[in-house]
Amino acid sequence: MSGGSGPLPYSMRDVGAGGAYNNAKFRHRSRLKMFVQSLATNSNKYRCGKFTVGKFLSLLMVSGLLYLFLHKSPEGFVPSEVHGKDVHNNNVRRAPNIRTFWRKPPRLPPRLSPNEIYKNNSLLQQSPSEWTSRQKKVKEAFEHAWSGYRNYAMGYDELMPLSHRGTDGLGGLGATIVDSLDTAIIMGADDVVSEASKWIEENLMKRISEKGQVNLFETTIRVLGGLLSAYHLSGGDHAGSGDSGIPASYKKANPERLLEVSKDLADRLMLAFTSSPTAIPLSDVILRDRTAHAAPDGLSSTSEASTLQLEFSYLSRVSGDPKYDTEAMKVLEHMRTLPKVEGLVPIYINPSSGQFSGENIRLGSRGDSYYEYLLKVWIQQAENRDSSLKYLFEMYTEAMKGVKHLLVRKTVPNELVFVGELPFGRNGDFSPKMDHLVCFLPGTLALGATKGITKKKALESNLLTDEDIENLQLAEDLAKTCVEMYFVTSTGLAPEIAYFHIEGNSEGGPDGGNKSNKYVNDIIIKPLDRHNLLRPETVESLFVLHRITEDPKYREWGWQIFEAFEKYTKVDSGGYSSLDDVTSIPPHRRDKMETFFLGETLKYLYLLFDESNTLPLDKYVFNTEAHPLPVMRSVEQASHSV
């Protein structure tokens, strides 16, 4: 009970020896009875000869009873209304009955404290909450984005919302359609589900057989990941689809067709693995010819080669064919054997030699999802966490120690925590540069600390180590910095890249334009880095941190970001546009709506405002394109999961 509540309706003498309340002590008592008892108790003080006050009162009571008996109504002392009889003569005056005097008042419980009153009121049916209303706004934004794509770019990879046309920059597989399908299922956007699934069923298989070059990584995370997630959420995986929390009434796609298309696409992508002389896959595949080749410089991005396993492993589970999982997992098994810098790795790897190339270490582009998938693949394959895949969590743990030791710094003057880069390895100079892409890390750190359950539950169950608590604090500190990258600009939207003022570093540059922001002197935004591509990483981390910490500030921050997207990137004719410069108002728009705005950014915002724990983080793992896939447990583990 809070200290601000009123005085308790009882004193300690009202509580019995056993510490329990006696409700009789709170029963209201007849005022007449209390008055009579009071006079009787003090009657010795008011004697008048031999005829005492007590005797007088007794005589008065007998006279009253005699009066009531003589004036008793034919129906007795109980009023006729109680028996369901009407009183036809309103002029008839009823005498008071005996129960009027001797009626016992109802028992009343002790008064409730304000906290108890709030708890009781929460059980009553409430009007839709503010967050439900805000979640609806996100759904409306998704439908607005889809309307622009459907009207001007249906079948193309991406929408150009200003010029009202489509463009194919991802291989021509209708990437926006596949990326959006599971978002539409989650939101209950039934019209979008119908339109997207119809296009996939009628066109995608043909597109796959006719199209040319695609990037292995982008096609796997967006198209294969999107197909498999929609397959699961549409009931294809009967073993676990009931855990999603998505209402059964929401429209779904045809899971059999989705799986058929997934296998056809994956069989062609497998050429990147089987055509390589090492365990590291080639970067590009010619779908039509079923051939694969390396990038022009012969190198693959470390993140791209190591961000395929969630999708291929799940496909093996649902198709019954182990080949997909076998080839994909060879990559991580091989990387396990390579030399590292305190668990950190360079951003390039050579598929011809199987060795890392160069010394550039960063958690931004080309490095980011390597660290993400070390953890998420370990989480996804729950049945092997303590056996064959234990090494993945060990690699993740070592890498996070390396991040804290080599890459984490604080700004001046206000000590924002950020993650920098080592462009020339551990012996080179530190760069205070952080891509927006790095803002995936707060969510990953939080997920690694609690494994998807709430912080409260993890603490109550004594599941958090000192290192887990430290990583969770780092996650919250980094999330604060990622959000300030938004709030420090004139538009309230983050740049693609930020630099930070640190002690002893003389590198300067322009600020974000919002002079009222406390951190305007901590963050530098260079002219070539001012663009915003509608990226999801910050709201992804806000979603995960809110689920784990249950701190409402993450929702508030997410809402402010959403409002800025609505204000500056929404195109009236449909769709949303990237921006060229977030530091100027009005910002110049870039004619492009990335597929991940529908597949990731709006999905994470929708789930951030969700009140029903849809897609719980201990039962689902999101691939790096925000496509949720179920945690794969053995039959025994599934029977014991909560």
Question: What topology emerges from the helices and strands here?
Answer:
Blueprint: H1 31-41, E1 47-48, E2 51-52, H2 53-70, H3 98-102, H4 114-121, H5 130-153, E3 158-160, E4 165-167, H6 175-187, H7 190-210, E5 213-215, H8 216-233, H9 255-269, H10 271-274, E6 284-286, E7 291-293, E8 300-301, H11 302-305, H12 309-319, H13 323-335, E9 348-349, E10 356-357, H14 368-380, H15 390-407, E11 408-410, E12 417-419, E13 433-435, H16 441-450, H17 455-460, H18 466-487, E14 497-500, E15 523-524, H19 537-549, H20 553-568, E16 578-579, E17 589-590, H21 595-608, E18 620-622, E19 628-630, H22 635-640
Antiparallel strand pairs: 1-2, 3-4, 5-6, 6-7, 8-9, 9-10, 11-12, 13-14, 14-15, 16-17, 18-19
Helix pairs in contact: 5-6, 5-21, 6-7, 6-8, 6-21, 7-9, 8-9, 8-12, 9-12, 12-13, 14-15, 16-18, 16-19, 18-19, 19-20, 19-21
Question: Could you characterize what this model shows?
Answer:
With 642 residues, this protein is mostly helical. The chain is built from 22 helices and 19 strands. Strands 5-6-7 form a three-stranded antiparallel sheet. Strands 8-9-10 form a three-stranded antiparallel sheet. A hairpin with a 4-residue loop joins strand 6 (284-286) and strand 7 (291-293). Pfam families: Glyco_hydro_47.
